[in-house]
Request: fold
Amino acid sequence: MRFSTGAALAFLASALTTVLAETFVVTVGKDASLLFEPTSVQAKVGDVIAFQFMSKNHTVTQSTFDNPCVAKADGVDSGYQFIPQGTNVFPQWSITVNNDTAPLWFYCAQQPHCARGMVFAVNPTAERTFDKFKTNAAASAPPASSAPAPGAATTTAAPAAGTSQADTGTANALSAPAGSGAMSSASISGWPVVLASVLIGALAL
Reply:
């Protein structure tokens, strides 16, 4: 069988790329942090990026520079990788770089990890830097909640005019529906006293 010069050169180039390929190990959540370490790498075609999950329940989800915390429609995703406490087995998920001219952007989809800086980049550029990507991620955080402080009372509806919140809760718990003719348990408890007074009065006559 004879090979053309072009085919032979292509085969050699492919083999050389495979031999020279580098593997980057990126830890995910090492020491219970919300970090990819390192935060970015400069990779060549054929290089492998191996993500090693170290704690909690993280993902490696591909996104875009402009929307760091939103999954890319046709992007790759490791899915959630739960790591039990005290384990010494750390799962690994890898990708291979097929194009080293286009940056790749990733984040952890576990909320709110992305907005807190858990993002990663492959081949960021001078214009689209990792720092800008991380800043975009932080800007995607939802506004601060106006939830009350722990222990503060909450209501689902405003009480009727002239009625305190405490009174409203007591009335709802004890009173029968208006117009039903039924009495509350609090009202019934007063009838023995009234009846006793009537009997005593009758005996005195």
About this structure: The CA atoms of residues 14 and 121 lie 25 Å apart.
